[in-house]
Amino acid sequence: MVYNPANPIIVQGDFSVLLEAYHADFEIVRSGLSLFADLEKSPEHIHTYRITPLSLWNAAATGQTAEEVLAFLLEYVKFPLPNNVCRDIKGYMGRYGLVKLMAYPPNVVEEGLDKPSAPGEVLYLYSKDIPTILAIAGHKETKAIFLGKLDECTLVLPAGKRGIIKQLLVKIGYPVEDLAGYVDGEKLPVELRSEDINGREFSLRDYQRQAIDLFYDGGRESGGSGVLVLPCGAGKTVIGIGAMAQIGMNTLILTTSTSAVHQWIREIIEKTDLSPELVGEYSGDKKDICPVTVTTYQMVTYRPVKNGPFPHFEIFNARAWGLVIYDEVHTLPAPVFQVTAELQAKRRLGLTATLVREDGKEADVFTLIGPKKLDVPWIEMESAGWIATAICTEVRVPMDFSLRMECAQVPERTAYRLEAENPDKIKAIQYILHKHAGEGILIIGQYIQQLETIAEHFNFPLITGKMPTAKRDSLYQQFRSRTIPVLVVSKVANFAIDLPDAAVGIQVSGAFGSRQEEAQRLGRILRPKQDGRAAYFYSVVSKDSREQEFAHHRQLFLTEQGYQYQILDFDETLPMEGMDRVAK
């Protein structure tokens, strides 16, 4: 077996991969590993990745083979690959596609026989590997699902159990290739404009067209469900609109906030030939169900009584949807997973900047929305000029003695909040505001009281979830038009907000170690700037604290994408002249 002690990685028998951060080949290897392994830790010298069944199945779904993965590892390993790792990479990747779900008996598909005009009430789970079918048929988790055997290679199950069987089979190690197809929704021809309604030239970028083509897959059963992973600022809304035009059917879009609903509606009307009356908003203010309907996860998961029914779930059956788009799919709440398990005959498109979920439900996204069809590295998009170059800095602010004493005597969760609300962060914010005076700046945080203090100190407007949507949208528009240069925003701005003039993000507190939140917040400032300027992302943390430890975990996803955080130890010796220009 070929290996070289001068190479940058060590692959261990527990499926961890250690990568030397200062090796000459670091960037090449980091990029390659990210296609089939997950980053776990990234201290200064050694980054730790882990190869998992799900990471390998997602790699297989994008077309990678076990031979390609092993060839990559062999090219860069210091020491021989453990035999169990070689064997299991082949085994796990070989399982993707080993079991297929079909709408018709396998012989009808393979022999090209006439198919019934309408799908039946049963589906067929098929594998040419008879021991696999025997194992599935007898497994305690799955055996109650099946109605019986069609032959030694095929099990029969109710069509309504399509989502459930996929969830169960992934759980026991058999990812299903779903070829059962889809029920067409009501037709809705959609044409993309060559100029938007404001007269600006519009067309799909090459990677946006590629993303749509990979999702649609020529209309074959292997297309029509899956997740597209692209950086914030890469135009995921446009990709969703392009998918609508490709499929040409009634579409339901779920997103994260009413402001995001308005953004989707605005983009659809600007960039397609659909008239406004064909595009509906289903929210707390409006309940319009139209051929294209946009709603929020919060709306459809609302229930007036705890443990009671979800009254707005009816929207999923309100029209003959041909496509359901899940915006920011990594935030998909558990109740929507449940209803999505019943929507497997609908085409499903997930859009996200990161598949990282802090609740560990990545496998549910894989089974119920579909496998990852495209994952474009952020740095690759930056190099092509589609997103802004980002400079990330962690600013460490000391805590005074009284605050340290208080944090030492309270529960850990309380101490974290006290550290996050460190009042001396105001000085660091002031320094950053001065450094970037005149640029579009977002100050983003987790704790409302802290944000209120900052907004009052600098006399900046504050946006929180309690603010009426109309007022919120008005402030966003004033920021876009440069009437307001700085906004203080709570976590409502984490997702799906288009603020192209935002060039600087100052994160003052966050949701513990949330990697997805870190990625989303950086994404708010990544729209390419007309003058080619870089974007600057600052994470202001209390020095030598739990918050600093959580900040390191938050940065993992961005580290995997190739970003590096500079460290700035803030103290009052930094140049502070001219601060009166930003202070209240």
Task: Report on the architecture of this protein.
The structure is a single chain. Helix 12 links the parallel strand 14 and strand 15. The model is unreliable at 576-584 (pLDDT under 50). This protein starts with 8 loop residues before the first strand and ends in a 15-residue tail after the last strand. Helix 7 (162-171) packs antiparallel against helix 13 and helix 8 packs across helix 9. A 7-stranded parallel beta sheet has the order 12-13-11-14-15-10-16, with helices on both faces. The relative contact order is 0.10. The chain is globular, with a radius of gyration of 25 Å. It has 4 domains: 9-95, no CATH class; 99-179; 206-376, 3-Layer(aba) Sandwich (Rossmann fold); 382-581, Rossmann fold. The protein has 584 residues and is of the alpha/beta class.
Concise synopsis of the structure shown:
The protein is 34% helix and 19% strand. The strands form 4 sheets. It has a 7-stranded parallel sheet with strand order 12-13-11-14-15-10-16, sandwiched between helices. A 7-stranded parallel sheet has the order 19-20-18-21-22-17-23, sandwiched between helices. A 5-stranded mixed sheet has the order 7-8-6-5-9, with helices on one face.
